[in-house]
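Comment thread on ticket #2218

A.B. wrote:
> Attaching the input chain for the structure job we discussed in standup.
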Amino acid sequence: MKTNIVVTYFPGKEEKKIYQEILGERAKICHLKDESENERIPLINAAEIVIALSFSQKEVHPKEISHLKKARFIQLIFAGADNVPFERIPENIILSGNVGAFAESCVGAPLKVFGGF
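C.D. wrote:
> Ran it. Output below, let me know if you need it in another format.
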């Protein structure tokens, strides 16, 4: 049986293709931004894995969070978790950020500006 994955943001055409190529054989991938409000709740109910940019209210409405009944894992694409309403996330769900994802570019910019001190 395929794992239900919900993507909360609107990935571009190429990114959707990558998701399908990498996960398509093992997972059913649903994109919340492609769905109406009425269709979102059943998808969230069935989600085992959630992929979000930052899990902000623009991606997942606070009322929808309570429907994460089967979710085991939330992956944030962004490094920070400032938008995550931790108090609403069930304790059994593992939340993973992308800490350090932009570290090289964050360090690289000042080094380039200041000549690599």
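A.B. wrote:
> Thanks. Noting for the ticket: The chain has a mean pLDDT of 85.
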